[in-house]
Amino acid sequence: MANQEDIFKKVISHAKEYGYIFQSSEIYDGLSAVYDYGQNGVELKKNIREYWWQAMVQLNDNIVGIDAAIFMHPTTWKASGHVDAFNDPLIDNKDSKKRYRADVLVEDHVAKIEAKIEKEVKKAAKRFGDSFDKQQFLETNPRVLDYQAKADGILKRLGKSLENEDLADVKALIEELGIVCPVSGSKNWTDVKQFNLMFGTKLGATADSAMDLYLRPETAQGIFVNFLNVQKTGRMKIPFGIAQTGKAFRNEIVARQFIFRMREFEQMEMQYFIKPGTQKEWYDTWKEKRLKWHLSLGLGQDNYRFHDHEKLAHYADAAADIEFRFPFGFKELEGIHSRTDFDLGSHEKYSNKKLQYFDPEENKSYVPYVLETSIGLDRMFLAVFSSALQEEELENNTTRTVLKIPAVLAPTKAAILPLLKRDGLPEVAHKIVEELKWEFNVVYDEKDAVGRRYRRQDAVGTPFCITVDHQTLEDETVTIRHRDTMEQQRVKVDAVKDIISKEVDMRYWLQRI
Ligand code: ATP
C-alpha cells in the first residue's frame, strides 16, 4: 500500500489535473498557502457551502444568516482579544533558516511517540489474534504505558508554558526533547517569539488620514457586532442562532499542508445565543448535531473523532474539535466552542453600547452566552476530496481512478455520451442535455471510445453517465451507468431525470441528519 505522503501527493496532483484546485498566481511560481479553485472545485465548494447552509439556516427556524463585511472597525479586534492574544509561538532554525511553530514541533514529536504505541498495538494484535483485547493492552502493557506517560507529560508541560506565556520554557522543552529541524537536521534554534497572525492594511487615501485595519481572522466577530440588529429586526427569541460563511485571513507561520492550512480561507460559522447557565446542555447538543451532519455524507464513521481541548482559548469555558482522518492523520476539521459572554461583554465595554437581550420569561435583561460551531470550508473540501479519491482494482486486472464524491456534492451530476459521433446519436444526446440542464449540472462528451469517457467521468467524480446508442433511436431508452458500482441499467429517457434527482437532491441527504 502507498504511504501517507504518496497518497497526499496524489490528492494534490489529482486536484490540479481535474480542475479542482490550482496554486494561486501559478505563472509567477505561486504564492505560498494561497490557492484558487478551478471549474470543478468551485462547484464542489459551492455545494458544500449550500449543504451546510440548508442544514443550519433553512432547516432551523430559529437560525438566520448574515453576510458581514471583511473590513471591520479596528476596535473590534481589540475587544475580541485578537490584537493582544491572537499569536502563535514561532521558532527559526539558524542553519536551514526555516521557520516553525514551536508548539507544532513539540506536537509532531508527540505524534511520533503515539505512532510507536500504534505499532505496539498492531504487533500485539497480530500475536494474539482473535483473543486480542486492545483496551486491556493499552491499559496494562508496560511499554505502552511508558510511551503514553511520556506523551501526556510533554503535552501538559507545553500547555502550561503556553498558558503562562513562558516562551523560554517552550524552547527548553524543544531542546530537552532533542528535536531537530526536519530540513537541516540541526538543533541550532533561535529563541521562541510570539507572532500575531492578523494581516494589517490601510483604509483611506492619504498617509496621515489613513486608518489601520485588519483583514478579519474569523467571521464570528461580524456576527457579534450585529447581534442586536438581527435580534431586534428579526424579533428573535433566545435561544437563536446567526450563521455566516465568508473569507477569513491568517498569516500562518507554517503553511505546508495544501488547503488544510491557508493564509486566505473560508469559514462557515454559527453563533447560537443562549441563556447563561444553559451552555453545557447546548454544547453537548451542538457537538452531536454537527457530528450527525458530517456522518450524513457517508465519508465513514471511523474517519471522525472528537478531541476535547485541555488548553482553552481566552474566550471559552469548553471546546472540542471534530477531527477527520486526513491523508496526514487525524486533524481538526471543525471546532465547537462554548464562548460564554466573553465577546458580547467585551464589545459592550469597548463600544459603550448595551448588547443585552430582554428575556420576557425571566423579565430581565442579560448578555447572552454563545455556543459556536466553526468549520473551515476548504478543510471540509479536503476531507471530502481526499477520502473520495480511490484506486480500484478491477476484475480484468486493470485499475481505475475514481473520485467517489457524495453525489449530492458532485460538481457535475451526469455526463451525456453518444456512443458514436454519427447516425443522429449526437442530436439525441444534445436534446437530453437541453432537458437536464434545467435541473442540475450536466456535460456532453463525444470524444474517444465510450470506455475512456467513462474513466474520465469516474476520475472527475461524475456520479452518472447516460449513453445514447442505436437502440435509443428505436425505443427511446438509454443506459445509465453508476459511478460507484459501474452497474448499467437500460431505462426510458423520460425516467432519467427522476433517477438522478433522487440521488442528488439535498433533501434526501439532509433527511438523514
Ligand atoms: P488550527 O489549530 O488548525 O490552527 P484553529 O483552532 O486556529 O485551527 P479555529 O480558530 O477554531 O481554528 O477556526 C475554526 C475552523 O476554521 C477550523 O476548525 C478550521 O476548519 C478552519 N481554519 C482555521 N485556520 C485555517 C487555515 N489557516 N486554513 C484553512 N482553514 C482554517
Radius of gyration, in Å, reads 26 Å
Task: Trace the largest sheet across and list its strands.
Answer: 3-9-10-16-13-12-11
CATH architecture of the largest domain: 2-Layer Sandwich
CATH topology of the largest domain: BirA Bifunctional Protein, domain 2
Report the sheet-strand fraction.
Answer: 15-25%
Assign a percent range to the helix content: 25-40%
Gross geometry: globular
Describe the largest sheet: 7 strands, mixed
CATH class of the largest domain: Alpha Beta
CATH superfamily of the largest domain, by name, is Bira Bifunctional Protein, Domain 2
Quick structural gist:
The protein has 513 residues and is α+β, with helices and mostly antiparallel strands. It is built from 18 helices and 23 strands.
Topology diagram in text:
Layout: H1 4-17, E1 21-23, E2 35-37, H2 41-58, E3 63-65, H3 75-79, H4 82-85, E4 87-92, E5 99-101, H5 102-128, H6 134-140, H7 142-163, H8 167-176, E6 193-196, E7 200-203, E8 211-214, H9 220-225, H10 227-233, E9 240-249, E10 264-274, H11 279-295, E11 304-308, E12 318-326, E13 329-340, H12 342-351, E14 357-359, E15 364-366, E16 369-376, H13 377-388, E17 389-393, E18 399-403, E19 414-418, H14 425-436, E20 442-444, H15 450-460, E21 464-468, H16 470-475, E22 477-482, E23 488-492, H17 496-504, H18 506-510
Parallel strand pairs: 3-9, 19-20, 19-21
Antiparallel strand pairs: 1-2, 4-5, 4-6, 7-8, 9-10, 10-16, 11-12, 12-13, 13-16, 14-15, 17-18, 21-22, 22-23
Bound molecules: adenosine-5'-triphosphate.
Adenosine-5'-triphosphate is lined by residues 250, 252, 261-262, 265, 267, 332-335, 374-376, 378-379.
